[in-house]
Amino acid sequence: MSDWLTPDWPAPSQVKACVTTRAGGVSVAPFDSLNLGDHVEDSLESVLENRRRLSEAFDIQPAWLRQVHGTTVVEADPGRIAEADGSWTSTPGIACTSMTADCLPALFCNRAGSRVAAAHAGWRGLAAGVLEATFESLESKPADVLVWLGPAIGPQAFEVGPEVREAFMLQLPATAQAFIPSPNPGKFMADIYQLARLRLAERGITAVYGGGDCTVTDPRFFSYRRSPRTGRFASLVWLER
């Protein structure tokens, strides 16, 4: 577990967060070893053991989601797996959880340390407004919200078509700066971190941290772009018991 990441952000002391890596589990290749996704053809027995180890490491109850690249945000409930791409909680010990393997995980908290939230943002969810919906779930003013952006596909690896660029620019023309022409004609290299920051800034949220780890080039993380048959790691945020 020493390989796992602790977000570097000025969150209140009762707000805890963690990002798992591939290390510390029981899954075999190509899901080695701490795959937390139960939808990637890994052994369910292995996934459940990996999830148990995660829960035990922090004495938390992760609330897992069935992520669909949408904008639905629900109250985190460890007792059910909701179809959603964001969750929030004000209950200590329950962890809002985002599973990714190139998509952007975003962790939220309010400055009072009374509510936390997590979002899963692929480009479709990001363009549709999943970060904004997750912010709304905090029921806080923009100036009272902190956001940490977890490991995701980096700008040097995220090649997209013109339709992706247009989807963002139609809503927020300033997002043009997050795209540069690719060496491949007609394609663009997209900066998902910059896109997230621009959209959050549009809502008045400027206390945004993280955004420095590329899942494609960093072997600590699962990456669908690097290897389509792979596992999922998790970014979690919770209130201390």
TrEMBL record:
Catalysed reactions listed for this entry: adenosine + H2O + H(+) = inosine + NH4(+); S-methyl-5'-thioadenosine + phosphate = 5-(methylsulfanyl)-alpha-D-ribose 1-phosphate + adenine; inosine + phosphate = alpha-D-ribose 1-phosphate + hypoxanthine; adenosine + phosphate = alpha-D-ribose 1-phosphate + adenine
GO molecular function, one term: S-methyl-5-thioadenosine phosphorylase activity
Taxonomy, superkingdom: Bacteria
InterPro entries, alphabetized: Cu_polyphenol_OxRdtase, Cu_polyphenol_OxRdtase_sf, Cytotoxic_necrot_fac-like_cat
Keyword entries, A-Z: Hydrolase, Metal-binding, Transferase, Zinc
SUPFAM superfamilies registered for this protein in UniProt: CNF1/YfiH-like putative cysteine hydrolases (SSF64438)
Family note: Belongs to the purine nucleoside phosphorylase YfiH/LACC1 family.
Name of the protein described by the UniProt record: Purine nucleoside phosphorylase
Origin species: Pseudomonas orientalis
